Amino acid sequence: MMIFVRRVVFAGVLMIVVAPAKADTVDAVALVNAWYGALGPDVAETERIATISALVEPDARIELTDLGVTQTGTEFVESLPEWSDAIVGGRIAHRIEAGATATTVVATVCFRFDGNELLSRETFALGSKVTALVSETLSDSCAEF
């Protein structure tokens, strides 16, 4: 009986220790999912700006390697009106890669614009918000997606 009680107590403690980490990972993935949801073509520009502003730290480092651009979170938000024009008639699809943690999420993303498409890998560093994002082009086609 004592061994059974020890196992139950150990299992309970293990669940308490592991559950928050799992919840943090779920929160991190939800944040990244919200990020791509806000960038979609059906989102009004004011809503997009408000949502992304709430998801990114002002001093975050946003690196768009295919464009050779590095911006702060604030600069990224300020560039969203240009994004609103670019995504008209387009679509975004993303897939979270295995191994997401509470502080790092990697996504494979297909950006379909009117007339071209781009397959990217985007790596997010996270605290309570996005603290860094590195986007690298994988292909000029989403055929592999």
Q: What does this protein look like?
A:
By secondary structure, this protein is α+β, with helices and mostly antiparallel strands. It has four helices and six strands, in the order ααββααββββ. It has a six-stranded mixed β-sheet. Helix 1 packs antiparallel against helix 2 (45-55).
Please compute the radius of gyration using only Cα atoms: 19 Å
β-sheet strand percentage:
25-35%
Order of helices and strands: HHEEHHEEEE
Number of DSSP E strands: 6
Instruction: Classify the secondary structure makeup into a structural class.
Output: alpha+beta
Span of the ends, CA to CA: 54 Å
What general outline do the C-alpha atoms trace? globular
The percent of residues in helical segments reads 40-55%
What integer is the average pLDDT?
86
Task: Work out the helix count.
Answer: 4
Low-pLDDT runs: 1-23
- Strands of the biggest beta sheet: in what spatial order? 2-1-6-5-4-3
The largest β sheet comes out as: 6 strands, mixed
